Amino acid sequence: MLPEKIQKLLEKQKYRLVGTHSAVKVCYWTKQSLTTGRVCYKELWYSGVKSHRCMEMTPFLGCNYRCSYCWRIHSDDRPNYPWKEFPVELQKIDEPNFIIDEAIRQRKKLLIGLKGNPKVDVKKLEEALEPTMLTLSLTGEPTLYPMLDELINEGNRRSMTTFLVTNGSLPEVLERLNNLPSQLYVSVSGANKETYLMLARPIFKDAWERFNKTLELLPSLNTRKVLRLTMVKGYNMKNPELYAKLIEKAKPTYVEVKAYEWVGESQRRLPKSAMPYMEDIMSFAEEISKLTSYSIGGAFEPSGVVLLKK
After folding, report:
1. Closest to 14 in 3D by CA, of 32, 31, 36
2. Where would a tag sit more exposed on the chain, N or C end, judged by fewer CB atoms within 10 A?
3. Torsion of the alpha carbons at 190, 251, 203 and 60, rounded to the nearest 10
4. Residues lower than pLDDT 50 in the chain
5. How far apart are alpha carbons 103 and 116 in whole angstroms?
6. pTM for this one?
7. Sequence-ordered list of residues with C-beta below 8 angstroms from that of 223, at least 6 positions apart, any chain
8. Cα dihedral 77, 270, 137, 230 sign
9. 3-state SS of 212-277?
10. DSSP readout, 34-84?
11. Quick one: pLDDT at residue 105?
């Protein structure tokens, strides 16, 4: 699926490729949990999450968006690194059980090197080698994987907590899911069409309309739902009343107001000043709270995120 150059670049960035179109990587907070005891805000806020046993992976390395704030490399980012990212016709589609088994195997290889680290909690590391959480995120758009329903079902069958993070561009895929994830994240790039398209840079024309169809669908999905508002200072931190309208339309269980982080390939697209301070995030979250039925439920400065809940 990927040119050799891109594969080598991802491997250098500590990704491990899984089969034809998937990948896995050890999350920063997994390492932090093992070496310092600090955990991800998701463990603090959401049931079923253990940072050291969370396997962050993607079942599909391609994406139909080229978000300016995304840390991943896009096909138009660097000279001599072009490839057809979307649409992609796969010659072979890997089965869900293979993807999960191989992702676990590759993740073990990445984690095993921590055994010699004196800071590592040995008992926790033994637990970490057997993940109990499947997070479909990392890179790419998971809803482009044709067997997503079966993959979530396989995770559920293994008694894994399943998180699905999507840009909301394929509401028809979410609508057809017979097996819902434990938690469904929808990313929000902007509160109006102009801002949304400017930051998300989708590879098709009706992305804004499709995103709104996903928001309209959310109330009917019987699972925990989160809108994640990625805040980019100087770009989309405006019009809180429009964000409030999107939130009230989607009726999520929670809203995360989260700071853009100036990391990875996004440093080539955006200035460092686009990364908000924690006080910026708190202030904007408070503005949204006043306009909705959601109140401040938590804040986690290391990740620059504020939780809004009913």
Report:
1. 31
2. C
3. 120
4. none
5. 23
6. 0.94
7. 180, 181, 182, 183, 184
8. negative
9. HHHHHHHHHCCCEEEEEEEECCCCCCCCHHHHHHHHHHHCCCEEEEEECCCCHHHHHCCCHHHCCC
10. HHT----HHHHHSTT--GGGEEEEES----SB--TT-SS--TTSSTT----
11. 98
Per-residue model confidence (pLDDT) at position 276: 98
> What's residue 62's pLDDT?
87
CA distance 17 to 30: 19
pLDDT score, position 1: 66
Number of helices followed by number of strands (H, E) in the chain: 11, 10
Q: What are phi and psi of 114, to 5 degrees?
A: -80, -10
Answer whether 216's CB lies under 8 Å from 249's CB. yes
Handedness of CA 235, 238, 240, 241 (dihedral sign): negative
Compute and round to an integer the Cα radius of gyration of the chain. Answer: 19
* Contact (CB, 8 A) for 133 and 100: no
Classify the C-alpha dihedral 166-152-48-98 as positive or negative.
negative
Neighbours of 293 (CB within 10 A): 12
Write down all domains in the chain, each with its CATH number in brackets. 4-309 (3.20.20.70)
At residue 286, the pLDDT reads 98
Nearest CA-CA partner of 148 in 137, 55, 70: 137
**Residue recorded with tokens 């469904």:** 184
